[in-house]
Amino acid sequence: MSQDVRLDLPFDTPVGDRPVYAEPSAQLGPAEAANALARLFAQHIDGSTEQFRDCQNADEERLDALIPPPATPLRVAGAIQPAPRAFLPPDEEGQARLRRLDASLRLIEAAFPQVSTDAEVCRLTCTMLEGAWRSRALTPPREQEQTTDCSCSLCRRLPTPPARTLTDYSWRQSAGRPLTVKTWPYRRELDSVLTGGWSVVRQMNDLEQDLGYRHRFEDDILLFHEYKRVIDDIDTAHLTQLVEGRLAESFSTNSARALVCGLFAAHKRSVDEYWLQQHHAGNVVLPQTNPLSQGTYSVLQMMDCLFWHVSPDTELWQEEHLASLLLCRVVDDMTDVRVDALTGEISNFWLADMPTHTKALYAASAIALVKYGCLPEAHQRPMWNTWLMPSTVVWMGLTGRHALWFDGITEGLPPAEDCPLCDLRPDACTGLLTDGATLTIAPRPSAPDLSPRTAELSARCRAQHPETWPLFDAELHAFEALHGPWQGCVDSTWEILRRTYIAAVEASRAEPSTARARQIQQDSGAVGAEFFYALYEPETGREDTALLAYMFGCAHPHFLWNATGHRPSDVTGDWLDG
To answer: What is the pTM of this model?
Structure first.
């Protein structure tokens, strides 16, 4: 196989200048593509390894020894399911986009047949996406299917969402506050938090295995077609030459896979913008619903996940790895929900055609996985993206880009007694895509004594914020029951928690104030820029990440859960940014 190949991919070529390609040889309809995609995943997914199951059993035995649990199970159905209904076929513009995509994928497949499966996933996903968008635009929504009354312990705690307008989300744009700050000290293109958070995940994942991913640039190309405001600041032509040169000199499967994922990102952005332009031109009216079922949402998000988190080929199809990818997208969608409602992005699962109870189960699964990421047993077997969920939640909380502190602050603290979210047991949610997962609600354990560094955090809170201290101290005891003695950096972690979690708890006790919520949201980005470096420290960075992930994602009053509400409104946005 010749590796000295010119990747003439039509990433940035104007539409009018692109060549006309032949029809794909095996063209499927969108619903057929969705079902073929589900079958492809089912065929390729590998079950959990024996070592992974041993680690799970060890953590269950340790937690059971603290408090033998009278458990209540919550069953989450497997996500990979056939499409429940047909999608409309793509229009002429959609067909043209698919032809251009197919031509580029064929070029990559010819040069690098190792990624033929990845190319087929991309091809099928984009076909499904085209049909889903057109069906959303032209098919009347089934309003009766959008809301399902449920009195379970989770659905009873779903928050009442605040009303929002597009102007409330100006902070979310890449060029807006607080994103002008640096999160990476060496490379100009990584001055954006959009890439900084992605890089810290790669750094953390590669510490033990040293797969050589920490300082690679070939898959950085993924970022440049998703975020136009970042593209403006980067010499993409020079970077593309570097990518091509590296591929010619030293081929790796991930390098080629990165290009496939980059094609998906470019296609997704193109189809999103096309239908939003049709909406704003008055040619169609986009409803605040979409035809994505649980299964079609999940397979769509898989390609989006692989675009962000390219893993080693040996672990790509591991069941626990794919569950982690899906739930990280769930977390992202939970907090992005209202801005996506305003801008119209289709992939958000809170807008998908799923019962409320299913959405609540997915959100609870994400919280259970955050807790699992705090366990020492979770990291006994180093696997790529083992730290993905904890680092994702921390990145969200330290950029101000997501709604943890902004939309998450509600009036009054909910009671902690008999809280099913507090009592969710840690769970890796393995099997979420295939046979399903079973969450467990059981009394949460609490460490009898705090370790010295955690006790110092508690003492500082008691001295400076006495009203918040009882809740903060209780959460530290719960965290150490999961994690064991904490060995992180007291000074930086305290400063972060003081200006994020503690500030949000105190704001919840005060009179409702949008301005106060916005202040905390913006300051979370400022404190993140100031202390983001601490997450890279070899001795304490992972300890800090584990505690911050717990406080941002699991600790009462569950600011992450408070972001799950959605109040439908008109699609009025004119930009997409994430």
So the answer is: 0.85
